[in-house]
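Below sits my pick:
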Amino acid sequence: MIIKKNINFPNICFDAITDDTTQITKSCLFVQTKLNARYTRNLPLCPLDSYTHNPQAIAYIESKNLAQIFSLPKYIVGITGTNGKTTTAACISSILLDCGFRVAVLGTRGFFINEREIKPKGLTTPSVLELYEDFELAKDCDFFIMEVSSHAIVQERIIGVPFFLKLLSNITSDHLDFHETLNEYIRVKNSFFRDTELKVINADEANASFESTNAYTYAITKEANLNVTTFSLQDGISAHLESKIGQISENALLTSPLLGKHNLYNLLCALCACKILSQNIQTNTGGFKDLSLQDFCNKVEKFRGVSGRMEVVSENPLVIVDFAHTPDGMEQIFASFQGKKIVVLFGAGGNRDKSKRPKMGAIAQAYANRIYLTSDNARDEDPLAIIEQIAQGIDTQQALIIEPDRAKAIKLALRDLQQDEILLVLGKGDETSQIIGDAICNFDDREVIKNLLATL
């Protein structure tokens, strides 16, 4: 990409900056990144500190130094994990906005400043140059909350970012098409926490490994800085919390309309983060001044979740849409409805990790009374081939319905749904399109469900 921007160094001025070798001009500063390095081997690159307007040279800056030429928001908070990043980031944003701060959020849903959409959804973590453009757009914000993908860590899209606080939700299997092995995926996630900066870690996550300096933890089953002593997941979440963050131990009662144990973890992560921020940021008036753990819990109570995450599309019959697209993510959803009769509809994304497909099928069989296998975003793969790979994890054909057309599959599931059953439509969440081959079609699970319910 290329950004029009006046950049001034001693005796050197540029009117744009780019990370694209095809966009280079004499008045454009080039950003060298890990991803474009293979295209620059034969270019006459010259670092800024020795650039002297040599007509044959191309001035460049390394991506790790972009903070020198872009304005940044005050405090940058990064959250990584296999599941829960989006909900946790949104909850933190909700709390901080309620405290009176200016907040930007960047992630799977897009880029927002004070809840106003600035850019639509794209990559979970954008390219390093676009990321710094987003930072500058949010330079007047107090906080910048961003999701950090494992791809972004490997590709150094976050290199040089001065994170004030880093968060870990969990680490389960995903993206093995890119990382190749689970051990490598785990290593990459944990590499985000090897420094001595402030960090918040899920102590119940067995795969977590981190530098203990300035580390705080939250947990339901293990001893941590923020603990749950008792909890209930009936009709939402209610939990009694104990905090050992800072000089004073605190107790608080958390209530939330969100569903599921996984959301209790998400809320704990958000609460722990906000409590630590309040302990480490000096605010003389307003903001965090004198807020207790209970005050933060009261603010969480107002948080209604994220569109497409455990979203109730219909109450009668009960139909819920969620973004869950990994075995662990699906199991977390299923576990939220233990004792209920579950019907599930899902597929798997094409050109993505194939190893998780039969595992998704096995998880669905373990929890659901009836399974509808259909297309997700098939991309360049044959939808039926993807479905067959999911079905390999299902050792019985009983109550298994295969329909590659997602709209038709939803219609079948709704038609057959009994009054005492719950239909979970998983995989796409708040996505409003479906990718099949080269075609990008308008498709929103929620709208399809509502339209079908109106006619069935």
In short: Residues 6 and 15 are 4 Å apart (CA to CA). The longest strand covers residues 2-9.
